[in-house]
């Protein structure tokens, strides 16, 4: 009888542990990959331009902008005292390419009637091997649509390195996409925020950087350390031998601060947060 009772206790304990593990895994997956960012367009712009007299800023991009994995640099902009009264709308969407953003430009940017728009898009284009001309065409179409339908100021942000080994094959490939971003900004007469240049300046004199090694597993483990174990994003980065990224793509606290500061400089400049005249 005692032996049967002991076996039942073991089964119950193991089942509880399994269910707890599954629940924790599901929680991490939801917080990282499924939940919306803070103040997404679907909420903020459901009835058109958000109410209020302050400037409306839309930050559009993919997961690095969404900020549910790695540092939420858009949220950090929102907290800066100099932007009190601004409406920051996070139009980041995990996994997006430039084609994806082009497909939602009306619903997630134009619908908000913004005063300023930042565009940080292309990391997934590089990773997916999207042809450079297709990428360039998508960037141009996004800018043209925003210009045609709003009077917002626009800034293209260059893409951070992929991982911290600047001589890796993927970072050599990334250079062509960043050249396309800079050329597009010049041709379209829009702002340019030198994110890659700032990251590269920080990394270029440092040796022994780990090889680029992003995967879903790497991202999930980084998220687990952050959401379940209470690590800071900088601590997650250090665990992976990194400094500016938690998993070779998404931003650590230090990397996020760089992006925040660069975006803040553009917004605070003469042209950053004031609408074009019609």
From TrEMBL:
A GO MF annotation of the entry reads:
phosphatidylcholine lysophospholipase activity
Q: Which Pfam families does the UniProt entry name for this protein? A: Lipase_GDSL_2
Superkingdom is: Bacteria
Coiled-coil-forming residues are none
- Residues forming the SGNH hydrolase-type esterase domain are 61-254
* Name by which UniProt lists this protein: SGNH hydrolase-type esterase domain-containing protein
Organism, by scientific name, is Streptomyces botrytidirepellens
């Amino acid at each position: 009888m005692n032996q049967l009772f002991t076996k039942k206790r073991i089964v119950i304990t193991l089942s509880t542990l399994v269910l707890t593990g599954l629940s924790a895994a599901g929680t991490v997956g939801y917080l990282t990959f499924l939940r919306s960012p803070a103040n997404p367009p679907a909420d903020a712009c459901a009835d058109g331009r958000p109410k209020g007299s302050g400037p409306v800023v839309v930050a559009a991009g993919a997961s690095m902008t969404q900020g549910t994995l790695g540092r939420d640099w858009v949220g950090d902009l929102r907290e800066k005292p100099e932007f009190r009264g601004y409406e920051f709308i996070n139009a980041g969407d995990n996994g997006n390419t430039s084609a994806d953003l082009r497909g939602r430009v009306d619903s997630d940017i134009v619908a908000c009637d913004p005063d300023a728009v930042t565009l940080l898009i292309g990391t997934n284009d590089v990773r997916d091997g999207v042809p450079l001309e297709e990428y360039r065409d998508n960037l141009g179409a996004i800018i043209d649509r925003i210009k045609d339908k709003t009077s917002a100021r626009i800034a293209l942000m260059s893409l951070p390195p992929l991982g911290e080994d600047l001589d890796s094959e993927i970072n050599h490939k990334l250079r062509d996409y960043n050249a396309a971003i800079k050329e597009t900004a010049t041709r379209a007469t829009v702002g340019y925020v030198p994110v890659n240049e700032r990251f590269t300046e920080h990394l270029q004199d440092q040796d022994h950087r780990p090889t680029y090694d992003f995967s879903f597993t790497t991202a999930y483990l980084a998220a687990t350390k952050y959401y379940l174990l209470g690590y800071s994003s900088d601590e997650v980065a250090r665990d992976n031998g990194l400094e500016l990224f938690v998993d070779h793509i998404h931003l650590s606290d230090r990397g996020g601060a760089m992006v925040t500061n660069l975006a803040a400089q553009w917004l605070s400049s003469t042209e950053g947060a004031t609408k074009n005249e019609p």
